[in-house]
């Protein structure tokens, strides 16, 4: 199997490493080994090592599950607040167009 190469912007790369560091800190505060965290997340220890390094090759869901398990606050710790925020975001999303079409080159004729 060929390894895929993922290129991130410097800001995204730094943010991912910060997130990884918060997960690693949470794991250590809980006193869990990487093996224990891997078992709880449902992945192999190699994947958890990649999470600790901030690898962009690891699925975002794996990061979120590890973060939730070690107590890293994702958006809010209150499930009801998270549900309300999700509902509000979904309502805003439904007001936007379903797809974006490329605008034609040149000046737009919007004189009705």
Q: Helices and strands in order, then pairings?
A:
Blueprint: H1 10-30, H2 34-41, H3 45-53, H4 60-70, H5 79-94
Record keyword descriptors for this entry.
DNA binding, Cro/C1-type_HTH, 112 residues, 434 Repressor (Amino-terminal Domain), 58% helix, Lambda_DNA-bd_dom_sf, Helix-turn-helix, mainly alpha
Report on the structure:
The protein is mainly alpha-helical. The protein has one domain (10-94): lambda repressor-like DNA-binding domains (434 Repressor (Amino-terminal Domain), Orthogonal Bundle). Helices cover 58% and strands 0% of the residues. It is built from five helices and no strands.
Compact overview of the structure:
The chain has 112 residues and is an all-alpha fold. The protein is 58% helix and 0% strand. α2 packs across α4.
DSSP strand count: 0
Strand content: under 5%
Could you tell me the CATH topology label: 434 Repressor (Amino-terminal Domain)
State Rg: 20 Å
Strand count, sense and barrel status of the largest sheet are: none
Structural class comes to mainly alpha
Oligomer: single chain
SSE ordering: HHHHH
Shape: extended
Count of individual helical segments: 5
